[in-house]
Amino acid sequence: MRYKLAAAILYLVTLVWFTYRLDGVADWVAIVIIFVLPFAAGVTAGVWALPVPLLAFLFALPAGYGSGEIPIWFVMMFVGLIALPVILVGSIARWLLIWYAMRI
User: Fold this and answer.
1) Contact, 82 vs 57, CB < 8 A?
2) pLDDT, tens digit, for every residue of 25-69?
3) Domain limits at 6?
4) HEC per residue, the chain
5) Whether 75 contacts 49, CB under 8 Å
């Protein structure tokens, strides 16, 4: 139980870091944070990771505009829209892995 909460908190800290460093992040790091990290959070934390993109969106509200014309909270809203289904897929993959391991 503790590792699930720790994984969800680590994912939240990474998303908040990404929110405030959005302009200076390399493209491959952004791809990993947007697509790979939610899957890993879903596998390790399960459904505990589902509220994390919403919390990251709330932390992004005071971030302002950064160096672009679009507010950072708007960008994080789309990151959350991508992350939620990926977290669900990771959570389902975890459930299937546990189910398969119990059958053996």
Assistant:
1) no
2) 898 999 999 999 999 999 999 888 999 999 999 999 888 887 778
3) 2-103
4) CHHHHHHHHHHHHHHHHHHHCHHHCCHHHHHHHHHHHHHHHHHHHHHHHCCHHHHHHHHHHHHCCCCCCCCHHHHHHHHHHHHHHHHHHHHHHHHHHHHHHHHC
5) no
Q: How many domains does the chain have?
A: 1
Q: Residues near 101 by Cβ (< 8 Å), separated by ≥ 6?
A: none
Residue identified by tokens 């160096």 is 67
Contact 79, 53 (CB under 8 A): yes
